[in-house]
Amino acid sequence: MTGATRLSVDRERCIGAGMCAMTAPDVFDQDPDDGLVLLLEAEPAAGDRAAARMAAGVCPAGAITVRDTVPGDPAGPGTGAAGS
Known about the structure:
By secondary structure, the chain is α+β, with helices and mostly antiparallel strands. The chain has 2 helices and 4 strands. The two termini are 25 Å apart.
């Protein structure tokens, strides 16, 4: 069994470039009112994790954080190595 990937976004840091929504449309979208990132899946399915990581990497504002959890980690979800 593998760990989960947990995502978070910082809407105050987001500049509305939309790279995340174009790269991982099942995970991210843009708010129709202000154009800022909307996180659709905080814990993306295994098939969406690579695209979510890529989206975090191409975000020009660095507004997406990726955290990997390890099964049985006593600290629980949301801990582990931070990505972009």
